[in-house]
Structures are given as structure tokens and as C-alpha cells.
Amino acid sequence: MGQGMHLKQSAKTGLILAAMTLCLGACNNAQVALPLTEQLAGNSPEMQLDFWHTLATRPVTSNDEAFHGLILYVNGQDNSTDYAGRVEWMNSQNMLPQDFDRPSNESVHHGTLAVAITRLLDIKGGLIMRLFGPTPRYATRELRYMKIMPRVSPHQTLSGMEFVGLIARIEDYQRITHVVDSDSLRDQENSTDTPAQEENKSTDESMGRIPQAAQTTN
């Protein structure tokens, strides 16, 4: 009887682990049914503000919405007519992982954005990034060291508010004159590790804040 109970418990544990694996895959690859880029991809100041304000209320940010937002931030406008055009522009700036082939309505991952942000901010990173260029894993790690991203994995997705907050932190980083590089910040974090709640304080403060560039668009 004891063996039977053990087998039942093992089977139950296996089912739970399988369910957790399926849930993790589903959560990390959530689909956005109606991306905002289908209605709010225009370049007028009003349309851009509507895009940022509406995105901040959404539970998930899609690849297409994230790329549109990044292009708006970089150029002040997005002249791409569709997702393929946005991917083409991102690739022309070396802002996407080499093997990127994800669909437009799939939730964007921190790792994908980390590659784009390290390129945008010209962050050289540590030895591996300097040798092989930014990958989702090491770019995410670098942005964590620099307090641009919170403690996340490359495969974690973002809500609309989290994406808007990330753009705001990029804006803050570019506005401030930095007297130390990321190598110094990395050494500092390794010697005096910061608790997660303290590290995420700046993240909480910037979440939901509309990027200044969007507020001053002409």
C-alpha cells in the first residue's frame, strides 16, 4: 500500500510540474489580440500621446507595440507602415538579436528589449559582450547592473506600464551625465549587493510615467 501511495504521489507531482511548465510557456508567450499599432500608430502629437497613455493601461506589451514605441522614442516618429517595416528598421540599427523571428502580436521579452537598449545607449558591457556583442541574456544582465532594468530574466514579458516605465528610465539615463561606466557599476554591485526592493525603487517611480519625448512632440 505504501508503494501505491508513493506512485500516486509521484504521478501527482509529475502532473503539477507539467502544468507549471505549460503555464510558464504560455505566460512567456502571451498573445495580444488587438495590438495598439492597428489603431494608434500615427505620428501626430495627439496620436502619440494616445498611444503612450493607452499602452500604460494594457496588461501585456506586444513586439509590434514595443518596436513602435522604441522607434517613436528614437526618431520622434514611426514611418513604418507595418510590423515588417519596424523589424526591418530595428535590424538596420542592429537593435535585434540575430535570430529574432517572433510574431507581431506575441508579448515582447526583456531580453529582446535589452539588446535594443544596449545598442541605443552604446553600452559596451563586460568582456563577453565586447567580444560577441549583446545577446538577450548578457544585455539583460548588463542593464540590471546599471539599474535600467529590474531583477528580471531575459524571457520575462512586460505589461504596458512596465514598458512605458522602461522608456522613461532610458530617457533619464540619457539626460544624466554618467561619470562611471557599467564596469564600475558591476564591481559596485558585486561588492555591495542591493536588496531587490531597493533596486526596484527607481523602477516603481518611473512606471506609468509618460516619456518626456512624447509629451513634447511637435
Question: How does this structure look, described?
Answer:
The protein is an all-alpha fold and 218 residues long. It has one domain. Helix content is 59%, strand content 0%. It has helices spanning 2-28, 45-55, 63-75, 83-92, 110-120, 127-132, 136-145, 160-175, 182-191, 196-199, 201-206, 212-215. Helix 5 (110-120) packs across helix 7 (136-145). The termini are far apart.
Summarize the structure.
The protein has 218 residues and is mostly helical. Helix content is 59%, strand content 0%. The protein is built from 12 helices and no strands.
Fold topology:
Elements (H helix, E strand, L loop, with lengths): L1 H27 L16 H11 L7 H13 L7 H10 L17 H11 L6 H6 L3 H10 L14 H16 L6 H10 L4 H4 L1 H6 L5 H4 L3
Helix pairs in contact: 3-4, 5-7
